[in-house]
What we know:
The structure is a single chain. This protein has 2 domains: 90 residues, RNA polymerase sigma factor, region 2, helix turn helix motif (Rna Polymerase Sigma Factor, Chain: A); 98 residues, Arc Repressor Mutant, subunit A. The protein contains 8 helices and no strands. 69% of the residues lie in helices and 0% in strands. Helix 3 packs across helix 4 and helix 6 packs across helix 8. It is mostly helical.
Amino acid sequence: MEPKQAYKLIQKCIDGNRKSQSELYQYIYKKLFVVCLRYTSDVNEANEIFQESAIKIFVKLETYNKTGVFEAWCRRIIVNTALDYIRKRKNIFNTISETKITDTPDEDESTGFEIENIDLSAEQLLHLIQKLSPVYKTVFNLYVFENYSHKQISEALHISIGTSKSNLAKARISLQKMLTNELIKIEKHETYPY
């Protein structure tokens, strides 16, 4: 959506135009529902996160200052809502191990596996991410998709920077194993079709 078009639509929503509110809701849903799906493997939970986020977006529409990209502004609200949802319902961050795995990479080091360089469809990648444990999934999403630093992740999740790094490394290792298994299945199927 072009910025001018978005601003007009936002203003109509603020003015209470129901048709514009429905249009904006559909636009946000189409563009950003996948963000909710990345933080949970359950579609019902993703819907809950999105609904709660949509309410916050519409309540805060007047505070949108039109200087940044509207989609990015909405995305921040959705990510924060997802984190709140996970913290309230899962209580997973109280159980995160503070122990590091050996050879935990620094922020600018590689684990030898860069998900960004793998040729997967968005659906295939989402499916693999959803298989991660809630902790790994959350840290991975924040680092890879939201571009959070380990310091920002540690502050958002109330964990140490080392724990953030460790969980990111473990998430990448888990994804690599899942991807390898998927590729082996495909290769076997292609080699031995029956």
